[in-house]
Amino acid sequence: MHLFYHSPILDKSFLLEKEENHHLIKVLRKSAGDEILFTDGEGYLYECRIEELTMKKTIISVLDKKLQIKNPFHIHLAIAPTKNADRMEWMVEKAVEIGVDRITLIKTAHSERNYLKSERLEKKAISALKQSLKYYKTIIDQENNFESLVSAPNIANTEKFIAYVDENLPHHLIEMANKKSNYLILIGPEGDFSAEEITLALSNGFKPCSLGPSRLRTETAGIVAVHSLNLINI
To answer: What CATH number belongs to 3-67?
Structure first.
């Protein structure tokens, strides 16, 4: 099963983007009359047909659309960008494949990087969405201040966790989180959160949690957190 992405899909027919044209013709060797599947990233699966297919223009018609059931839980990963942009792009790709609803890049006291190219992250997220056959596109927020995020009033009905390096943290995230809930998990930079940031998070209702006995790189910790929260909801 191949899944394609196009957004928004507002009419009964639409023009396909050039990059997807190439994939249809050169890789999948599709032709006019073939039926293919699309998602708009908003939860809909579209059954479509290729009406016209050339390297310059491809016309797709919509035959049917169905809303796909959304997971009964919501995962929000807030993570400090790594100095190496490639590592963060890899993390976004893998987290989306596993299943994450929102990724917020946070600016912390020890952040190594304050900016990542949003277009590249979006492309990675869309590619992973298609690969893993998902119908809801992950929201990616650029550069949210740590203090603003942890004290935001709109996260009151969320299970909130902060993972940091401390051998005395007794409980793993997978032991603490409840099924079918909204989660927000904070992952710090390579230099970890500052003591002041940890204190601020705890005072705002975040629970300290472990991600295992190993000292993990930032991007690895993000993957472990997302996988753990998906695992308890199987």
So the answer is: 2.40.240.20
